[in-house]
Amino acid sequence: MPDAIVLALPDSCLVVLIGAAGSGKSTFATRHFAPDEVLSSDAFRERIAGDRADQSVTGAAFAALHRVLRHRLARRALTVVDATSVGRSDRRPLVRAAQAAGVPCVAVVLDLPADVVLARNAGRQADAVPEAVVRRHLARLASSMRPPGLEREGFARAFVLRDPATVDRVLVVRVAGGAGAPAPDIPRLRSRRRSA
């Protein structure tokens, strides 16, 4: 891949995808990870209610997601959580689960421009999220990105992707490390900050 931006991940870690609805988290997960590595909150809603957009089962969906997550982390299996995770309270139990299992927790943030996210969400056929909800996601994400940032929350590293072209250039590679091995030196990825 020409001009690839390499995201080096430990082969045993928790990857938390962070971004508003419509930012491309599920597309990113599908492109870079095996289906059995991805725990999607939408998929758990669909399993429980038959409708991935049914917010009435969100509590049950996340309870099920966290049960599966704990089992995967106990096996030291690379696991990706595909949910908005835009607030610190959303991320805290994920970071704690990784810490309890002794595996690094890595954030991949899709902090794309609001107009891009809103247009993508509006273009979804059946799965469009109300615009007001997406705007709340964007506001919570902006708050999360202010210093001191995600690494203060316990993430080993935070990769922040700020535009679609950068997202398209990402190449995820696995870095070998046995049980108990320290997390490899994962470079921080910071694309140029967009103007406000």
Could you say which structural class the secondary elements and strand pairing correspond to? Answer: alpha/beta
**CATH homologous superfamily (4th level) name:** P-loop containing nucleotide triphosphate hydrolases
Distance between the termini: 31 Å
C-alpha-based Rg, rounded = 16 Å
CATH architectural group:
3-Layer(aba) Sandwich
Output the CATH class name: Alpha Beta
Order of strands, widest sheet: 3-4-2-5-6-8
CATH fold assignment = Rossmann fold
Order of helices and strands: EEHEHHEHEHHEHEE
**Judging from the principal axes of the Cα atoms, what is the shape?**
globular
Give a quick summary of the entry:
With 196 residues, the protein is α/β, with parallel strands linked by helices. The chain has helices at 25-32, 41-49, 58-74, 88-101, 114-123, 131-144, 164-168, and strands spanning 5-10, 14-18, 38-40, 79-82, 105-110, 157-161, 170-175, 189-190.
Explain what you see.
- This protein is an alpha/beta fold.
- The chain has one domain (5-190): Rossmann fold (3-Layer(aba) Sandwich).
- 39% of the residues lie in helices and 19% in strands.
- It is built from 7 helices and 8 strands.
- It has helices spanning 25-32, 41-49, 58-74, 88-101, 114-123, 131-144, 164-168; strands spanning 5-10, 14-18, 38-40, 79-82, 105-110, 157-161, 170-175, 189-190.
- The strands form 2 sheets. A 6-stranded parallel beta sheet has the order 3-4-2-5-6-8, with helices on both faces. A two-stranded parallel ribbon has the order 1-7.
- Helix 3 (58-74) packs parallel to helix 4 and helix 5 packs antiparallel against helix 6 (131-144).
